[in-house]
Amino acid sequence: MSTQRVQVAIIGAGPSGLLLGQLLHKAGIDAIVIERQSPDYVLGRIRAGILEQITVDLLHEAGVGERVHSEGTVHHSIELVFANTRHPIDVTGLTQGKVVTAYGQTEVTRDLMDARQAAGLPSIYEAAHVQLHDFKGASPRVSYEKDGRSHVIECDFIAGCDGFHGICRASVPPGAIREYEKVYPFGWLGVLADVPPVSPHAVVYANSDRGFALCSMRSLTRSRYYVQCPMDDKVSNWSDDRFWDELRRRLDPDMAERMVTGPSIEKSIAPLRSFVAEPMRFGRLFLAGDAAHIVPPTGAKGLNLAASDVKYLSNALIEHYLEKSDAGIDHYSQRALARVWRAARFSWWLTSLMHQFPDTAGFGQKVQEAELDYLVHSESMSRSLSENYVGLPLDFGGALGLPTSS
Ligand code: RFL
Ligand code: PHB
């Protein structure tokens, strides 16, 4: 058995774990990243595509902003479709100049992985049986197996960045954690295809009596589209032709006509869930990103929340090591959860407004359309949507009575 010592052990090499590792490295704090899967597997997961400015700024701060700057597409508007009609929302005009950037999560992860490798920082991929020990005390440890051999990492802190199904949240005694959950009675079928995006807007969100549809992009030649589907549906039920046909039927006729179709290069079904675990700190264990919370993807908030958690956590750890202050650590959970709940509310609201629920038909559909009609014709409602969409500010310190620095 080998034993190693680091300041911070990071569990999970998704965007949360890799971004945290990079920000700590920039501050001279040493960390190791321990990941259950292989790098190729991690890069093969097609997920988010819309980055808030706060997330883009963090990538720059972490020293990996070059490609998002040159290859990401900056957007100023989104579009809502309902009752067969399109309504653009000028999110930049309504938020004093804020923008969102289309840049795939896969590319964010790749940039962070490459930077970690170029800096020679330690990462253990394909680590089996990862276990956490003694994080309530002063000397936490992480054990794992790799190629049949056992390893132990002694550390000051453990960062649980291992996603919704990870080991970190599951290691907390049930009495110490409270979980809030809402599971939606449908999923999203997503298709990635090398076709030009149907719309110049960042994202098109479509409400229709056949169910929700979303049009997004990865580049000027690669598009990402989704349709709401039954939660127990199977990818094998969906030929490419059936997918394109259903997507067209949920959009307005003009857009359906303009849609360029082609063979799918990825097709998957994701369930929709709202979930928040409180608190996000247990002694010397911190949870960040999907390990602590899940939002339905309708608001494009999951990856962005992961990034803001990591910003609060890296500031707190930097304060601990460099300024010998534990104020940031002590306030981490409260500070992160304030922003998490606002995003959870927004994602739940937009999901409820845009999807067909079992009782939506008839009256429910009409009420959704009336609310959407009010939204697109009311400057204050459009502004509220836009403020949430581009991302709420990082600092809720004032509102919570917390110091505003980290
Ligand atoms: P991840 O990405 O799940 O990474 C966790 C990592 O931990 C590893 N792991 C373990 N490692 C070691 N030991 C264990 N026992 C482990 N168990 C797990 C996993 O293998 C994995 O590599 O979590 P992270 O880093 O917190 O990142 C969160 C984001 O991935 C997620 O919030 C977003 O993808 C959500 N999301 C979106 N977010 C946005 O901000 N904008 C979007 O446009 C957006 N679109 C989406 C989305 C999520 C979607 N799905 C999958 C529901 C679209 C979709 C379809
Ligand atoms: C995506 O591009 O995959 C995407 C965009 C916006 C969302 C969800 C997913 O709300």
Architecture blueprint of SSEs:
Blueprint: E1 2-5, E2 8-11, H1 15-26, E3 31-34, H2 39-44, E4 50-52, H3 53-61, H4 66-71, E5 73-75, E6 78-82, E7 85-89, H5 91-94, E8 100-102, H6 105-118, E9 123-124, E10 128-133, E11 141-146, E12 149-154, E13 157-160, E14 178-193, E15 204-206, E16 213-219, E17 222-229, H7 240-250, H8 253-258, E18 264-278, E19 281-282, E20 285-287, E21 293-294, H9 302-322, H10 327-354, H11 363-377, H12 379-390, H13 397-400
Parallel strand pairs: 1-12, 2-3, 2-13, 3-9, 6-15, 13-20
Antiparallel strand pairs: 4-8, 5-8, 6-7, 10-11, 11-12, 14-17, 14-18, 15-16, 16-17, 18-21, 19-20
The structure holds 8-demethyl-8-dimethylamino-flavin-adenine-dinucleotide and P-hydroxybenzoic acid.
The site of 8-demethyl-8-dimethylamino-flavin-adenine-dinucleotide (RFL) has 36 residues, from helix 1, strand 14 and helix 9.
